[in-house]
Amino acid sequence: MPRSTYPNLSPTGKILVFGSTVVDVVIKVPQLPATAQDVNISSQHLQLGGCAHNVAHVLQLAQVPHVLCSPVGCGIYGDFVRRSLQEKNIPIFAQLPDVANGCCYCLVEPSGERTFLSHHGAEYLFCRQWFTEEVLDGADSIYICGLELEEETSGSLVDFLEEQSHLQIFFAPGPRITTITPNLMERILALSPILHLNETEARSFTQCPVLEEAIIALHNKTGNDLIVTQGDQGASCFYQGKPYHIGGHKAKVIDTIGAGDAHIGSIIASLHQGKTLPQALAIANVVSAAVVSVAGAGLTQEEYNRAIHSIC
Question: Which long-range contacts (CB under 8 A, 24 or more apart) does 3-7 make?
């Protein structure tokens, strides 16, 4: 197994986790409704979610230093987020008291597959003055997802990333990868991020029907390593000039909410702990399998430890 090639990442290096913290409105449905159809749901509940929050939660479980850089707005959803973060002793990065926080309606089918209906709000808006020296102090990497790049403040966020090009970027654009403004995508890809996306996203963005070709095409755009998740089949990566595939782990699927976020969060944690990318993938596959086997996006510390100990 090759050695780690991420000398800029260390166990004491701080990760800046940019993105959303929202209220997930989890709605269990017998099937997705068709136009004009009436569907009776079996249950609904509210929980704390959002890509950045989910990633930060895994980093917290792994005891890796990080800062959740997620704005909080006003309104009923903003109040829920603010109260939940305070209960978890998570510092609130910034507040937009005049902009409502958004939410995500998570429709969960009996198979556990989820469909998201997102209402964006304050959680995706960023101001340049928030990126202070205090925030940057001790940071060696940045996580960013694709959703905030669709908002009006995306330009200032990319400006910031370009100014901090010495930091390693982990970029998980998600299913909206094809809707991000091409100019912004080119600017981010030029910063050589470590990409994290699923097989469908990789194929659609590159227009390559063969996964191996899509992986090579993505590597050619960034010049860096990348990860492509493949559901219960595991994940593939491009690492040190070679492709690797790490098999998945069977799990009884309750719901798939947050599985991708947990996967990339686990990879970031493992790389900071000195693991190679293939080693990190093996751990992340176990962690994401554990996430889909519980309701919601978050594992308890006990559940996380159990998953880690099953492979380490």
Answer: 3/276, 4/271, 4/274, 4/275, 4/276, 4/277, 5/240, 5/276, 6/168, 6/271
